[in-house]
Amino acid sequence: MEEFRQPIILGFVALYMSICIWVGIWAMRRTKSAGDFFVAGRGLGPMVVSLAVFSSTLSGFGFVGGPGLVYATGLSSIWMAVCSALGFATGYYLIAKRIRMIAEVRNSMSLPDIVFARYGSEAARLLTAGTILLGVLGYLATQILAMGLVLQSILQGTDMFADISLVASVVISSTVLIFYCVTGGIVASVYTDLVQGIVMIIAGALVVITAAHVFEGGFAEATGILLANDGEDIMPFGTLGAMASLSWYFLFGLGLAGQPHVATKMMMNRNLSDNKIILPMTVFGYVVAAMLWISVGVIMRALVLGDVGLPLGNADQAAPEFLSTYAHPILAGIVFAGLFAAIMSTADGFLNIGAAAVIHDIPKALRGRSLDNELFWARSATIILSVIAATIALYSGQLVALLGAFGWGTFAAALVPVVLIGLNWKQASARAAVTAISVSLAINFAIQLWAIKIPYGISGGFLAMLSSMIIFIAVSLAEEPKPLPKDIDRILEL
User: Fold this and answer.
1) Which of 30, 60, 345, 404 is most exposed, with minimal Cβ within 10 Å?
2) 465: confidence class by pLDDT, cuts 50, 70, 90
3) By three-state DSSP, how is residue 1 classified?
């Protein structure tokens, strides 16, 4: 079966793309309005929402970046993964119910709508939308580039497409992405997330089993090799140390509540009581899929340190190299399809919230109402954002890295105080929200633009989030509390 490895992998990827196209056509029939396009009409069941939330959170970062980080830094990065229970619990216990109720009573379609309903400030809505758009361009550019690179690596393993260019690979993958996102909006996205989530759970479990059999002694032998070679990488904080690891823990734990693609999905469930089901299902799926993150990274690091395998040219090659060398061809096909699904699904989710920012949130903040014929303009904005992001990914070089830094940390620093604290504290003020978002963006820009080194390896995103939280609380306390609208006040009482 080894001689058919590449055709098998390509077949699984082609099957996934076909499913995406079919989902887009099916979802188009259910997308009749802007509300359907952006929040699926708030009528999804708990299984769909839970799989959509965890799969869009783990994304391609967990399938490629996660094993690469473990390979490069030891167990330091598991502090990103083990915080999932904290992050999901914080989000669902503290804000999910309130976001869903505000969305219902105010007919909100986006996170900036929720922010405006809470603070009554168009400036806060505009800054939230601007933050989302900045982060989306970075995420989207890197995801589109990742799609192209994955597809190129798969196609170059065949005789027919051995010379395919990166540009052609980006065009092919982006065309499928644009098709199902434009036709079905968030409905297509969440049902693709459903497929992706199932693939990630199955692939995560099978890869862990495969990783356990690479060494005759299993993970015990692998950890023994790591311990014999200094052993710092297998210690609880890995090679980066306690401060760096714990800064990641809090950034990714608390920061989950500030991710707009997660908050948007909190508006979609049919019933508030579904949250009791969504939370444990989300955590379970994430934990199973995240085991791939740790197991592959540990095994690949042990193979290199134990002189069994050659050092990797790039840490991100850890997962692809593992699959190409040690996984059964069918399993490799499933996981590569899952990897492609993770990247494409994340790109789709960010396209959706980016389109909402462009045609719904920013116009509302500037002129008091969104664009007419929102559904048409939402689809148009989706195409335009895709083309811009693909151009940035292919031709801007360093700009992609700069915009890519406005990912998780940028969203967390700007939006955690405004959303997590603001939806649980009546005294939180609009001026505090505007100040916190502005300061967090300034700190993140400064750290990335001037490559500022923070002592002890502390994450720049964590520093920005901590600063914005302190400023948010301080400004709110310095102002006289203002009465909230009756509907918002009652929701915050719950």
Assistant:
1) 30
2) very high
3) coil
Does the global pTM surpass 0.85?
yes
Backbone angles phi, psi at 44, to 5 degrees: -90, 150
What b-and-e string marks burial along 207-237, b requiring 16 or more CB atoms within 10 Å of the CB? bbebbeebbeeebeebbbbbeebeebbbbeb
Residue 397 pLDDT: 54
208: which 2 tokens? 């862990």
Q: What domains lie within the chain, and their CATH numbers?
A: 2-396 (1.20.1730.10)
Task: Report DSSP letters for 88-119, one per residue.
Answer: HHHHIIIIIHHHHHHHHHHT--SHHHHHHHHH
Query: 380 with 55: CB under 8 angstroms?
Result: no
Rounded Cα distance, 330 and 349, in Å: 28
Q: Which two tokens stand for residue 413?
A: 């620093």
Q: What is the pLDDT of residues 209-229, one digit of tens each?
A: 999 999 999 999 999 999 988
**Read out DSSP for 432-466?**
HHHHHHHHHHHHHHHHHHTTPPPGGG--HHHHHHH
124-160 as b/e, with b when 16 or more CB fall inside 10 Å?
A: bbbbbbbbbbbbbbbbbbbbbbbbbbbbbebbeeeee
Find out whether 224 and 53 touch, Cβ atoms under 8 Å. Answer: no
Tell me how far apart the alpha carbons of residues 298 and 295 are, in angstroms, rounded to a whole number: 5
Q: How far apart are CA 201 and CA 427, in angstroms?
A: 42
Band of residue 398 on the pLDDT scale cut at 50, 70, 90: very low
